[in-house]
Amino acid sequence: MAGKKQANKTGQEKDRTPYWKQPWVECVMSGGYSQGDKLLFMRVLSFAPGYCSMTNETIMDELGCSRNTISDSITRLYKGGDLMVTGWNGHGRRLWAIKVPGVRENLQEWQKSLTKSGKVTDTASFLRKIRYRQMITTQKLGRNHPETGEVPPRNR
Known about the structure:
mainly alpha
């Protein structure tokens, strides 16, 4: 009598861990973030390992919250180290869920392509080119200063 026929296995065995149980998601979900922060993070995460280029207005319409809520959520996730922001809202801004596997590799490939085309020469010029958000920019945007907590005067 012939033995049982074995099915061919193609591809790799997939990791059966639910997506929301991955370590980079659990750190946000169990952290001190608000529900709005978590929703925004999950929306950005849906683009991973790529980036989210949606404007605040588009995210605001999808999540049903105010523009200030979106801006504050982006800032909290950025300061928490779970989100990387390049560019500015409406001007080539990209939101990256930085702890997701593959995101850093995509950023390195982006840097290599810009270096190869001669647009950047080193990491510092790459960060300037992509307008990498640094903590000092929150002061320029009229937000509280990250170190002193003071609100800078508005230019009118």
